[in-house]
Every structure is written in structure tokens, then in C-alpha cells.
Amino acid sequence: MQRTTKLALGVVIAAAMVALLWSLRAAPLRVLTGNNASRLEPAPDANPLVIGAVLPLSGPSASFGVPLRRAGELAVKELNAAGGISGRTLTVLWEDGKCDARDATAAAQKLISVDQVGVIFGGACSNETLAIAPLAQEAGVIVISPSASAPEINVAGTYIFRTAPSDALAGEVAARYAYLELSAKTAGVIAENGDYPRSLRESFIKEFRALGGRLVLDADLPNPAGDLSALLDKVSAAAPEILYLLPESGASGVGLVKQLRARAPEISLLASELLIDRDLVGEQGKALQGVLGLEVYFDDRATATRAFLDAYAKTYREPPPFPAVMANMHSQFALLRDGITAVGTDPKNLRAWLQQVRGWEGTLGTLTFDESGSAVRDYAVVRVNNSRRETVTVYPAARR
Question: Cβ distance 378 to 297 under 8 Å?
């Protein structure tokens, strides 16, 4: 009797263990949150593939970083539902860089030294990425940013990549479009004092001159931009065929355009992406009538891209606030999958694979990395007309 009881008890325990293991095996994706980071993973997995991510998840820039993280979470769910990467479940350690160099450094140190990841996605802000870069380069860790655009990242290291192009490229493309397509042989630049306008200003001037154009005006835009009579006197005296406008805020840009139209309506106006921002055009379209601007080309009607944007809207019950860079983030996971499938997880081999990426297709569109690891993307030329944005053409980033 005692033996029979023991045998029956053993059967019950074994059955319970099988049921427990099966329930764990079938457990869905879950998010585990901590003080400064969260971990997205299916449970359990004996050999997950772990990578890190550094984004601004708190503070003023969280409105930018959180949507990027959500785009990444959707990609992780999709990858793991399809079997993971090379049969391994993908786990992401999300760290808060706060769009701050010091916080990004601490986050990267943890991911590299404690968690020992071989890949980090981020930062979202250029200062985050520039803070992470020397640590990652020394440790031989791959970094891929979806949105950092500072030109200095071009020389941050051979392990540093980004799916957003450098600001310098935007200035170069604007110069080529002005000289080659608009036939402008003289140009002026009006730029506000800031890192972003400065990068475009320098690259535009260099490229325009290299093409044979003549720069007849290089002027600063006062901040705040009030009465610009002195600046407008310089514009009238220089009489450029085209002006390249680089404000740092929509308000200063609209004020500049209004006064330029009143004083020199014959001069063509070309601007950075800021002045063709959808919200700004909706609010100030009348004042911006006729302004041309360049932005990274993003086809939100492409099948895969539309599916991602719709999935985001359905999951989070809001439209994607930054669709282009969110598509960059989403695409980086597929890029990682393809790289690991091709060459394995060794960062040295992944670096070599990324360096030869040409014409890769993802939800972001077509991706090519240049010799510095920065994305080479085509640009949309947009004209403001009747308070709406009209795409004039898609202009190639590559020199003709």
C-alpha cells in the first residue's frame, strides 16, 4: 500500500512538472520594468540573443525616445513570433539616456561592462550617440542609431553606424539641387546660430562653391528675429538668385520668410526640413507659400512601411509621431537579423557585413551605408503651395 501511494504521488508530481514546463514554454512576450531600464523578452529561453538600446525614456526628450522604443518593441515581437534570429529569442535591454551625454555614458557602461552586449541601438540624440561611441569603439561593440545626425558621428569610430543621414549630407544635396536643377549660379545663406543650422550651412557653402557657384551672402539670423531691416539691406545689396534659409525654430523661420517676401519677392527660397514641417505648413502655409525644402525621402505608402505604421497605430492607439525615424528603428532589427543570419554574432564580422550594406530594403525604404557608417538616403524636394506640401521630386543623395 505504501509503495502504491508513493508511485501514485510520483506520477502526480511528474504530471505537474510537465504541465509547468509546457506553460513556461508557451509563455507570451512580456515587459519587465526596472528603475532605469526595461527588458522585453519571451520566457523562458535558455540561450536568448541579448542586445542593448539607449534612448531618452524620461525627461523632456522622452516624447521622442518612447515612440522609438515602441517601434523597436513591435519589431522584437514580430521577430520572435517568426522564430527569433537564427533560432534564438531576441531580448532587448532598454536603458534611459535622457538625451544627455552623462546618462548615455552610464547606460553604455552598464550594457558593455555588466550586460556584455555586442550590439547597442541608439542613442536617439546626437549627444547620446557621441557619448556612447568611444566606449563602444574601444570594446568592439556595434552601435546603430536611428536618428542621430551630427556630422561628427562620421568620425566616431568604425563600429558606429546610423540609419539616419548626416546633417552635412542635407546641406550638400541642397547645394546640388540649387546649382544643377534650379540653375542658380549665385546663392546666399541665412542661418541661425546652432549646431544643426551650422552643419547645413558649412556643407552647403562648400558644395555650392565646389560646383562652381558663387556665394554672395553668408549672414546670421538674429535670435529673436524682430526687425530684420539691416539683414534685408544686405540681401538686397548681394542680390542672390537663391537664398538657403536655416532657422532653428519655426517662429524665427516664418518671421524671416515674411520679411523677405515683402522686401525681395523675386528671390527663390530654399530651406531645411524645419520650414516644410507638416504642422508648421498647416499653421503658416500662407506665409510659407512657394518655399522649397528638402527632407529625407520616406515613402509611407510602401507595403511593408504602411503595415508597420498601421500596426503601431493599432497597438498604441495613436498615429506614429515620428514615422521616418521610427521606421529606421523598426528596420534596424531586421537589419540585425539579416547580418547575424549571414555572418553570426561576432561584432567584428557584423561590422564588416554592415560596411558593405548597399541597397538593403526595410520599412525605412532603401538603405546604403557610406564609408563612415552613415546612411545615404535620397531626399524629397517639397514645395509649400496653398497651405499644403507638394513633393516636387525625389532627388538622389549620390553625386551625379
Answer: yes
Report the 10 Å Cβ neighbour count for 320. 21
Residue 5 lies in a domain: no
Give yes or no: residues 181 and 130 share one domain: no
Whether residue 283 sits in one domain with residue 185: yes
pLDDT (0 to 100) of residue 46? 60
pTM over 0.90: no
Beta-bridge partners for 37: 95
The rounded distance, in Å, linking the Cα atoms of 28 and 314 is 19
**Residue range 330-361, pLDDT digits in tens:** 999 999 999 999 999 999 999 999 999 999 99
* Same domain (yes/no): 306, 288: no
Within 8 A by CB and 6+ apart from 5, the residues are none
Tell me which residue of 398, 363, 360, 361 sits closest to 379, measured CA to CA.
Answer: 398
* Residue 345 exposed, middle or buried by CB count within 10 Å (0-12, 13-18, 19+): middle
Domain residues for 269?
Answer: 168-297+379-395
309: phi > 0 → left, psi -120 to 50 → alpha, else beta; which? alpha
What CA–CA distance (Å, rounded) separates 133 from 329? 18
- Closest alpha carbon to 160 in 141, 188, 180, 178: 141
The answer as to whether 3 is a domain residue is no
Do the Cβ atoms of 284 and 306 come closer than 8 Å? no
Specify whether the CB–CB gap between 384 and 288 falls below 8 A: yes
Closest-CA residue to 178 (of 224, 215, 227): 215
10 domain residue, yes or no: no
Reduced to 3 states (helix: H, G, I; strand: E, B; else coil), residue 295 is: strand
Q: What distance in Å separates the CA atoms of residue 85 and residue 162, rounded to the nearest whole number?
A: 21
Residues 253 and 231: their CA atoms lie apart, in Å, by: 14
Average pLDDT, the chain: 89
Residue 2 lies in a domain: no
Residue 260 shares a structural domain with residue 389: yes
Strand partners, 366: 361
- Please indicate, yes or no, whether residues 292 and 179 belong to a single structural domain of this protein: yes
Closest CA relative to residue 195, chosen from 101, 126, 267: 126
**Number of structural domains found in the chain:** 2
- The CATH code of the domain that includes 244 is 3.40.50.2300
Query: Are residues 180 and 248 part of one domain?
Result: yes
